[in-house]
Amino acid sequence: MAERRTTKKTSRQNAVLVIGGAGYIGAHVVRALLQAGRRVVVLDNLSEGYRDSLTAIERAERRSVPLVKGDLGDPRTLRKLFAAHRFDAVMHFAALCYVGVSVKEPAAYYRNNAGHTSVLLDEMHRAEIGRLVFSSTCAVYGNPVKVPMPEDHPFAPINPYGHSKRMVEEMLVDLDKANQMRFVALRYFNASGASADAVIGERHDPETHLIPLCLAAAYGHIPELQVFGDDYPTPDGTCVRDYIHVEDLASAHVLALDWLARNDASTFCNVGTGRGQSVKQVIETVERVSKRRVPHRIVPRRVGDPPELVAAAGSIQQKLGWRPRYTSLESIVETADRWYRKMFLKTSVHL
Ligand SMILES: NC(=O)c1ccc[n+]([C@@H]2O[C@H](COP(=O)([O-])OP(=O)(O)OC[C@H]3O[C@@H](n4cnc5c(N)ncnc54)[C@H](O)[C@@H]3O)[C@@H](O)[C@H]2O)c1
Question: Can you give the pTM of this predicted structure?
């Protein structure tokens, strides 16, 4: 993408603003940034995130993580933040993320995910902060026309959530063309797992993600798991997804920041392992790891669930030098299980 002027307010020692840093993925990235020696400030409205995730990180890392409770769409909050700190870059995780809700409440999704992001981009431009790492999603592609899905796969989102993310991607391309922003937009596949030491993990309310739901069913916190369809054109008839461990996702963000510091350019990268796992394989793995049965029932397909979503994962490996450390589903589920037991069964965790 286009050539650009040098951003004025940057040096390697400045902080990183992590918006949505109290959420599931954001918190893991906050921790990875601290471990990489970066200073971090979090902006989160705590609509979905948890202050205690940040407290747990502070305790584990013996570093402070300033949290500003505020909204991404509030220009006054952003102006104050940008006046109070010097930021090398912004990492932007804040979004409403429930695909089903986005179909019922599209305006709220467009407002929060796209509208509020436009406020951020405008304020970043005014403050001359020219680097952004953006949380995008494989939902920008819609139904796959080929699998694995490369970054130049056609864009045909099938729900307002995916549309709202694609809208932001398009804004970013225009800002790049206008030499106002360089970005790395990471298109995550299925984020999963928890930190290896069970300090932080996955908490959504309501939970819609498969691995935590399997664990909730295994430990008797929900009566059963619903499996939406077993008649898909996949090896065992259930949907296939690409599960990427949240710590591997976090390391991709740290590398993205380094890439932006080295390159006067912008890029889109899938973040996935390139390997698919079916719903049945996830259930079997959770049963093996937790040593409990996962009660489940096959129910009709959900509208808008493609049979298979798997990343073509070569580009991020080539560009950012990123490699996933968690290469088996078992190793991902082990971390999720440890976190689940610590969080919801209050069992002590032996590492
Ligand atoms: N979890 C996944 O598998 C997955 C997959 C693809 C993409 N993503 C994207 O990754 C990002 C993080 O996902 P997550 O699973 O950690 O979600 P999450 O809900 O746990 O975290 C989102 C955080 O953003 C905050 N937030 C939301 N709107 C805000 C606003 N207007 N102002 C300030 N803070 C706000 C929430 O309070 C929350 O802490 C999202 O952008 C999501 O679309 C997630």
Answer: 0.95
